[in-house]
Amino acid sequence: MIEQIIAAVREAGKIVLSASDVERATSEKGVGNFVTKYDVAVQEYLRGALLAILPEAHFMGEEGREHEDSLHGLCFIVDPIDGTANFVRGLCCSAISVALARDGELIAGVVYQPYIDEIFYAEKGKGAFRNGQPIHASDRPMKDGLYYLGTGSYYQETYDRTFAIARALFDRMLDLRRFGPAAFELCNIACGRLELGFEILLQPWDYAAAACILHEAGGVITQLDGSPITLDRGCSILAGNRLCHGEFFSENLHKL
Questions:
Q1: Average pLDDT of the chain?
Q2: Residue 228 DSSP symbol
């Protein structure tokens, strides 16, 4: 089944790569929260392709706000273009994210960065992979680690806490990186390029697929208070290798 999902996601990537005159095809759902006709086209393609694989599944997609029941039975959780702002600006760093959950438990995830033809995927209990090769989270401590932060300009209430935590991490870690798409950032932790990352408020389609991949790669993802992530509503995210995730709490950064 994972091979069929990967094939569908790769095909959807062709829609992203075919895009032209993107700014004309863009509108705002809120301040700084963009959607293009390509987001909609990718989601519609994936809806058809994925439900052909598992007709009994629910489908939760970002565009159109199809918030179907993700906690009972099978459910695909899809972000057609994660990093739409990058996509609109031609920054060539966006991702397609597809997760599969059963009764609220993640059982598969695929994240594709079509611009560099890099695909991450995992199935529960079978390990995580990048372009066919096994991947693992690093074992670097905070002092030797790179971190990312996610920001949502449309969630103004998160600004102060976001940058308080970001500054505290900057004082403790090697440096900061910011690529944009949360799914891709989380996969960078899964393959050992980054050690830690956080966001105050994120939606399930942004993190579900990558959460499965990160877990299978030996990493950890929770909310900022250490509680489990949610699949039926948005929540905070703290992701990292096991050492840095633990250090975050031992340094009391969750209290900021």
A1: 93
A2: P
